[in-house]
Amino acid sequence: MIDAALPRNPVSVSLVLPIQLVFNIGFYAVVPFLTLVMTDDLGLGAAAVGLVLGARTFSQQGMFLFGGVIADRWGPRRSILTGCAVRAAGYLGLATSESFWTFLGSAVLTGIGGAFFSPAVEGLVGTLDRAQSTNGSRRNLFAWLVFVGEIGAVAGPLIGIGLLPNGFPVVAGSAALLFLGVGIALWLILPKHGPASIVGGEPRSRASALRGAFACLGDRRFVCFAGFFSVNLLAYNQLYFALPLELAHSGAGGGTLAVLFTLASVLTIALQLPLSDVAARLGPAATLRTGFACIAAAFAVMGLLGTTGMNLLPGLPAASGPVSFVVLLCLGHMLVGPAGMQLVHHFAGQRPMSAYYGLLASCGGIAVLIGNTLFGAFRDVAGGLSSWVLLVVLATVSASFLPHVLPLPQQKDRS
């Protein structure tokens, strides 16, 4: 299923989706508590905390293109196993760090580990999705990837909270053991096929394979697609960046934020799969347009909070504004994310696929890094409304232009 020349022991959906589940459990058992550890245990200030979190995010999202190229060169098995080992090393470093620099280096290692295995997993899902779409199935495997990943995002913090009374080193050390255990299991389970430089059973030269791996950078239509699509990750990141700032400005406590995070997870678990069926009927262009329209509406709602407070309109229940924001943002994200991911293998055709997914994620990481820096500056200078207006504009631009840079019919035929 992964390679025509390798019929034995193919990778299946029943293997790939649990991998994503376990990876997310290990990730979310640790990462939500990094800020607490850095401020309370290490005594770091806000600037140092921001640097660590930003470096960790960029070392993963920003390096996805290179991780995807490596996955196409090495093959998914070697990339995933390397990623497990590197992330485990990062978590062990976090468990034993007593200074800023060792904590920073360990956090970066956890991100690099993700840059190794995430594009490889997405490439496997893309290959499986392409195979089943060829057989006439309309099921979007990326919707399932988001679904099981969100279950891990809910379960991970609960496990972390349960272990935290024993100390953060126990939390991080347990996550390290989890990734080591998963790595050993996958070393035994994943098929030992060769790198993606063998396509369709035909060997390719090393130079040809390298050119193919970076072909995504020369695909101008896909680069435009990735640029417009990056607004999706930037938008969803506002749950963790701009929303807490807005709530703090309105006088809401951490309890409100926790409820909103829970609402986002519940919505994703409950609606991701039904919405993927709706998206299949709408088609990719209408789905992307509708999804980004929902995201733009979510940001417009938050822009109104500067004049209405926590209520969207007078007479509505308390916190109706932030709740409406979370609902609209999640609906848009659930429509846009799987639909866009499913289109990537149409762009790639028979070329190495993981690099395409890597570039898509790297564009999102760069958008988050630049966007959040600009939005923070705008908030300091001109107030929160300016950043929400800019986000409305960006989402509207993506809704308008992204449907015009979808894969051409001949690209879909080649895939």
Describe this structure in words.
With 415 residues, the protein is mostly helical. It has two domains: 1-213, Growth Hormone, Chain: A (Up-down Bundle); 216-406, MFS general substrate transporter like domains (Growth Hormone, Chain: A, Up-down Bundle). It is built from 18 helices and two strands. It has helices spanning 13-28, 34-41, 46-62, 64-74, 76-96, 100-134, 141-163, 168-189, 206-213, 215-218, 220-237, 242-250, 254-282, 284-308, 320-348, 354-382, 384-401, 409-414; strands at residues 198-199, 202-203. Strands 1-2 form a two-stranded antiparallel ribbon. A hairpin with a 2-residue loop joins strand 1 and strand 2 (202-203).
Helicity, in percent?
A: over 70%
Q: Strand order, main sheet: write it out.
A: 1-2
The figure for the number of domains is: 2
In total, how many beta strands? 2
Mean pLDDT, rounded to whole units?
83
Known CATH architecture of the largest domain: Up-down Bundle
Topology at a glance:
Blueprint: H1 13-28, H2 34-41, H3 46-62, H4 64-74, H5 76-96, H6 100-134, H7 141-163, H8 168-189, E1 198-199, E2 202-203, H9 206-213, H10 215-218, H11 220-237, H12 242-250, H13 254-282, H14 284-308, H15 320-348, H16 354-382, H17 384-401, H18 409-414
Antiparallel strand pairs: 1-2
